[in-house]
TrEMBL record:
InterPro entries: AraC_XylS_family_regulators, Cupin_2, Homeodomain-like_sf, HTH_AraC, HTH_AraC-typ_CS, RmlC-like_jellyroll, RmlC_Cupin_sf. It comes from Rhabdobacter roseus. SMART domains: HTH_ARAC. Residues 187-286 form the HTH araC/xylS-type domain. One of its GO terms (molecular function) is sequence-specific DNA binding. This is AraC-like DNA-binding protein. Coiled coil: none annotated. Keywords: DNA-binding, Transcription, Transcription regulation.
Length: 292
């Protein structure tokens, strides 16, 4: 897979491209490709940005990234430390829905599967309870070659198509297609936010990163993410707050608030409840109630 800013062209010689990653950290720039991407995170933690959505990822998560959906698996900061012994592992499949519709899925027996593949435009997450069955099918594809791999891939698609209650992460990319130049600018914006979310981030500072006036930046960011800059930043901070709360490594919720970029606990509590649907304390209590 050749890496260039924002757009990543994927090899077309195969029906499905199988990629096994074992790296110090995930590729840390916003990018896209016309292929659907099915990724099983086997090792590693961080923030997933896909379209206008941001959330934490962890081992065991399986995602289907929509075609041409800008996305980024941003490993946590410790993975980038000079003395880090951490690493990530992932198994990813790339397949072009248009190519499949005009080739393999032209068979009359695969008409419903063809429609399902064509409909997979948003980015989604496999429900937790369905992960074992999906990853088992992915391993079957991984270990086969040529014709048997294609047969196993069809079985995998059938399994995916029959899954109930996919979790939709971000809607299909709407509006004008984002150019590579705009994608590079969006990447700079996201890189800055990921690096500075623990500190106050002023509108003037982030607008300067984008080389826009504050007013123009607000319009630009809303156009390309369907969210305001403040909403997106708050969601990123709350995602990190959830990680910290579940780790149990904090002295108080005030500490969680300050470590994730909030200037006071009252504002943190209000934003947390808006994003998660419950207070930080209730979130912690529910989690330990389920695992206890």
């Amino acid at each position: 897979m050749k890496i260039i800013p924002f757009t990543i062209p994927v090899a077309k010689e195969t029906t499905v491209m199988v990629q096994e990653d074992q790296l110090p950290h995930f590729y840390n720039h916003l990018h896209r490709h016309p292929e659907l991407q099915l990724t099983w995170v086997q090792e590693g933690t961080g923030i997933l940005i896909t379209g206008s959505h941001t959330q934490r990822f962890q081992p065991g998560d399986v995602y289907l990234i929509g075609a041409n959906q800008p996305h980024l698996f941003k490993s946590d900061a410790p993975y980038f430390a000079a003395d880090s012994t951490l690493g990530v592992r992932a198994l990813s499949f790339f397949f072009n829905p248009t190519y499949l519709a005009h080739t393999l899925l032209q068979l009359p027996e695969l008409t419903l599967l063809k429609k399902w593949v064509s409909d997979q435009t948003p980015s989604q997450q496999v429900p937790t309870e369905q992960v074992p069955a999906v990853t088992e099918a992915m391993i079957e594809v991984q270990h086969r070659q040529e014709g048997p791999r294609v047969a196993a891939f069809i079985q995998l698609l059938h399994r995916l198509a029959q899954l109930p209650a996919w979790q939709v992460l971000s809607p299909p990319t709407s509006g004008p297609t984002i150019t590579d130049t705009e994608g590079t600018r969006m990447d700079r914006i996201f890189q800055y936010l990921v690096a500075h979310y623990q500190q106050p981030v002023s509108l003037a500072a982030i607008a300067e990163v984008a080389n826009l006036t504050p007013q123009a930046f607000c319009r630009y960011f809303k156009k390309h993410t369907d969210k305001t800059f403040v909403s997106f930043l708050n969601e990123m901070r709350i995602s990190e707050a959830c990680k910290l709360i579940l780790s149990g490594q904090f002295a108080s919720f005030a500490e969680v608030a300050y470590q994730t970029g909030f200037e006071n606990v009252t504002h943190f509590n209000r934003v947390f409840k808006k994003c998660v649907g419950q207070s930080p304390r209730a979130f912690q209590r529910d989690f330990y109630g389920k695992v206890g």
